[in-house]
Amino acid sequence: MAKANIKTAIRKAVRDVKAYAKKHGLKINANAGGGGSGIFSQFEAAKYSNKRQWVNTPWPADFKRTMTVFDRQELTRKMRWLSVNSGLIRQMVNDLAMYAVGDGIRAQPMSGDPAWDALALKYWNEWAEKPCEITGRYNLTECLQIICKKIDIDGEIFVLKTYGPGGVPMIQLIESHRVGTTMDGNVPAPENMTDGVLFNKFGAVVGYQVIRSDGTGRLVNASAMLHVHIPEQVSGARAYSPLQHSINNLIDVLEILSLEKVACKVASDIVRTVTRENPQFDGSDADFQAFGMRPQDYPQGVYDNPEQVGAFIGGKTLSLAPGEELKMVESGRPSPNVTAFIEHNNRDSSQGYLPYEFLDLTKANGAGMRVTLGKVDRSASARQSILISRVLVKLWGYLIGTAIANNELPLPKTGEWHRVTWVTPRRITADAGREAAANQKDIEMGLKTLSDHYAEMGMDAKDEIRRRAADARLIIDAAAEFNVPVSMVASLATNVQPEAINAAAAGEPATSPSSEFVPFPDSGNP
Asked: Structure pTM?
């Protein structure tokens, strides 16, 4: 009976709603309803809750407004402090610079004119190997190492294309704190300038304001300045360190370690106690019996002073008055829990930058180590890509273009003087022997070119192939000079035919069919 009454009441309520809607001309809106804000949000992460703290962050906006000048300078200040005082930060920054830059990133001109390529490469190397920075202290490889480290510490660095004495192209490295709004309050910042970066109405960068030592500013055209950073934001003006998420973790770790070391010192400072009726040592045998020492072995009066006794016994020996007793608590410092906590913080600090297993090689082995080194190799390659695209390619255009304009270099026959590739340092690997065997097989099968192989090794393919040919000619000439078989001078590659060696020794081209290259000798191809 109760259920029937409920159903009747519901039907009546529905009829009343329909009648009211019809009377007032109301219609159902398909877009009505849905989620709301606060506790009515459809997304759990967007709901308000008293079970967790409020995340104090501004509402979404352009990043140039979200990251204020104070934010950038505070992050830079703390990261510079950590780069000096934190071993983990120093290791990560230096490791990435070592594998990304190493002994240098070398140019390889690809204009299509071999003679011009050789001239341009010589001109570039002579410029890069000498101090090319305006202060006369750093060559190009050293500048790249500084740039790579500053990307991680400050988040960015600026490179100004300038000229040295005699109009020689040079660069000037400008740290992040040297670009910003002027400190001269009498000179207002230009319109559309955000933290030293000047934008036009379309959002393109047109200039950078460099702060001089006296606080005044100099506006530099964007075409003369290279802003080197990791591109992460679309609407940002400046950049932050990719390690900024680790700042609080590492400061906490350093503070905990400092307090833990103090606790260890306090626990280790007092090593033994003596409780007796007379608080002074009287020189009796009993005073030293516990220590296995004889008072007659020491000068008169030394054993009367507890401080002097502690000096030759080791640690501090306390003499307590009658009725006094000092109980020692066995030290558990450093705590194993603290060690695990610090490891957790260090792991969290390195995530998103380098694998923690690479920083602590005891944490990875076997297949895990290969994956770890693969990630490190990708990280180094990503950094090399930034250095090449944002620095080296533009410096090549600046230097070589200036040389051509000044008639120091001719134009290549193809006109493509700007085409250049770059040879990076040798890649990191855990299985050098296995990868070398695989490379050899790929080259023999024609799946990989010698240029690719030498590039992976951090070598210039043209130089290495010419060196290989020169070595082969030297071996043949030496064998002919002393009238000995070539095989006695050096072991030969298995794919080199005797006819080819004899022809080379006679100074004739190897035209014998047996010297022709057969790509797949065992495949049965004609």
From this structure: 0.73
